[in-house]
Amino acid sequence: MDKKAIEKILSKERLEPYLKRHSEDFEKAFAHYKANIEISESFYSFIIHTGDWASEQY
Question: Are 28 and 22 a contacting pair, CB within 8 Å?
């Protein structure tokens, strides 16, 4: 993991809640951030398709 490269891509504000949660441990904070992204991505297709279905019901 290249911390400087990650810091150029992600703002301090975006990582701040994760850094606070993990006592400023950058590696743990970034791992947590990545896990949240992966979880969100896993639901994306479901949400998109559920939204189409729901709009057809009304």
Answer: yes
